[in-house]
Amino acid sequence: MHPIQSDIATDSSDFQRQRDAFLARIAALKPRRAEATLGGNEKSRKLHKSRGQMLPRERIAALLDPGSPFLEIGHLAGADLYDGVPPGATIITGVGQVSGRACMLIVNDATVKGGTMFGMTTKRHTRAQLFAWQHRLPCITMVQSGGGFLPDLANIFPDEGQAGSIMYNQVKMSAEGIAQIALVHGPSTAGGAYIPSLCDEVVIIRNQGAMFLGSPQLVFAATGEVIDIEPLGGAEMHSRLSGVTDHMAENDAHALQITRNIVAHLGEAPCLRWTRTAVEAPRYDPQELLGLARMGDQPGGDCREIIARLADGSRFQEFKQLHGETLVCGFARIEGFEVGILAGNGLLTSQACAKGAHFIELCCQRDIPLLFLVDSPGFADSDQGDQRGVGKHGAKLLNAVANADVPKFTLIVGAAYGAAYHALCGRAFKPNALLMWPNARAAASRDAADEVAGALNWARHLWCDMVIDPAETRPALAQLLDVAGRTPARPTEFAVFRM
């Protein structure tokens, strides 16, 4: 496997101009991330702390193994969709190491609207659950929620992917032996009470956590009866009488330590099914990706230049290099993990589609995960003489992508338009994760407005899992590959290929 030789003049004015434009995109992304990370306003955060509680992200940091990363999913979900709600949609979801085991953390942020659930909150919650289910990750839910936000009930209650799916996913995962653990950090009403009740083990905090279908205020409004939180649904009542909770903690820190102990006794952690080699840096600085990625509708460059800055040692064993040149395929390693890369390099032609299907078949036979680096303006026109079979061969590629039962990861590095978005493992084709760079655009056509096709819009609607700085790509992919590599291998069965 030979290193890619870069032909890019990184000191040229064109490269620097491109880099500056990309830096502007990153600069626009950073405050939205910071807004999401901060959570509620200063008054809400101070009130939270005045009650002796840790802030939600402080709880996450205390639960995770020291120095281990937290890979957040849906960081910008709901951005600008609800008045007074920062990006994140009142919840935090992501993967981190707890007692040496990768877990999915689902954390209500009570500093934002009391942790009440909006439609996008339930969508983010269920997306996190589906990721956990696919990768057999224990779910740790930190509960402190006022339940559903009633004005948005139509987007919370009736449909699949909403609140009912949260409960369904919990019990189905539990039935498959995927641990469901809850910590009740504060008053939790309605859906906020059902979620811990459906878990395998529940930790509640004395004089702080509470669970009830109707709050004391609701009881008074309905019956005129005055009742305190503790007898209605406090920690003592649930631990001594109802038996809904299994462990009673004295404070947040104690509850988090109990949870770490629970995870430590979940049995043997799954082993990695692939051999991970020593990590090797690319020969070319990943920071140079900022000067290479397509901005807007400008012409795209050679995708091998991007691969050279992502792959270990910049090595890439290309497959069918002289055939179907608009889809570059080959093998590489990213932070020691072997991957089969399919990288868009122009319009998808008949040859490119047939080549991609062939390459995917090889990866499935060898249990090699797939990485789609998406930058494609679409399919070639079928009225050209040499492209009359593009529909038939495009169907082969769609068949291969849909049925490939190896881990699949999609990273949109430039443009993804029309059916090419689907053929290169768009969301509907169920990649394990879909990531975008801040410059990325995806839409049904190239005519879509920037605010529709842009990465922020995709992130706010959870059409992608995360928007990342190109410099974050290698570590993010490594964490995703490590999680996927601890699931059992599965055989692939393709549908009928139209020859």
Provide a descriptive summary of the structure in words.
Residues 22-278 form the CoA carboxyltransferase N-terminal domain. Residues 285-499 form the CoA carboxyltransferase C-terminal domain. GO terms for molecular function: methylcrotonoyl-CoA carboxylase activity. It comes from Caenimonas sedimenti. Pfam families: Carboxyl_trans. The protein is of the alpha/beta class. The chain has 2 domains: 39-264, 2-enoyl-CoA Hydratase, Chain A, domain 1 (Alpha-Beta Complex), CATH 3.90.226.10; 286-484, 2-enoyl-CoA Hydratase, Chain A, domain 1, CATH 3.90.226. Helix content is 36%, strand content 18%. It contains 17 helices and 17 strands. It has helices at residues 13-38, 42-50, 56-63, 119-135, 163-175, 191-197, 216-223, 229-233, 235-242, 252-264, 303-307, 350-366, 390-403, 418-423, 450-453, 455-460, 473-484, and strands spanning 70-72, 91-98, 101-108, 139-143, 180-184, 187-189, 201-205, 210-212, 247-249, 317-319, 327-334, 337-344, 370-376, 408-417, 433-436, 441-443, 466-467. The strands form 3 sheets. Strands 10, 11, 12, 13, 14, 15, 16 and 17 form an 8-stranded mixed β-sheet that branches. Strands 1-2-3-4-5-7-9 form a 7-stranded mixed β-sheet, sandwiched between helices. The protein has a two-stranded parallel ribbon with strand order 6-8. Helix 4 (119-135) packs parallel to helix 5 and helix 12 (350-366) packs parallel to helix 13. It is elongated and about 80 Å long. The relative contact order is 0.11.
